[in-house]
Amino acid sequence: MSINTATGRGVWLAIILLASACFAMGAGFVLSVVGVEPKLVLGGAGATFLGLATLGLGAFRFVAEGPQNGPSVE
After folding, report:
1. Beta carbons within 10 angstroms of residue 36's beta carbon
2. What ranges in the chain are assigned the alpha helix state H?
3. 8 with 1: CB under 8 angstroms?
4. Which DSSP state fits 74?
5. Among residues 12, 17, 2, 26, which one has the least CA distance to residue 52?
6. Where are the domains of the chain?
7. pLDDT per residue over 2-18, tens digit each?
8. How many CA atoms lie within 13 A of 36 on its CB side?
């Protein structure tokens, strides 16, 4: 499956967002086990989701697009 098709990009988007959600649930669980206030548990889980989703989508774009027409070394 090519990652440059609409289907390939959709599948990778789903994988990245699902993995981010799973890690956010894990972070929320750990924070709740430690005994943090509920509002901080939700904030920590949300921040984990946003951080990992942003990182994952940025990394995917970096890998999928490859080198652009930048300065040539001659």
Report:
1. 15
2. 6-34, 38-65
3. yes
4. -
5. 17
6. 19-63
7. 666 778 889 999 999 99
8. 15
**16/24 Cα distance (integer angstroms):** 12
Cα–Cα dist 74/29, whole Å: 54
Q: Is residue 57 within 8 Å of 16, Cβ to Cβ? A: yes
Residue carrying the six token digits 């509920």: 38
- The pTM of this model reads 0.80
Q: Are 20 and 53 in contact (CB under 8 A)?
A: yes
Is residue 38 predicted with pLDDT exceeding 90?
A: yes
Quote the tokens at residue 10. Answer: 């959709």
Q: Which of 67, 69, 20, 68 is nearest to 45 (CA)?
A: 20
Cα distance between residue 32 and residue 20, in whole Å? 18
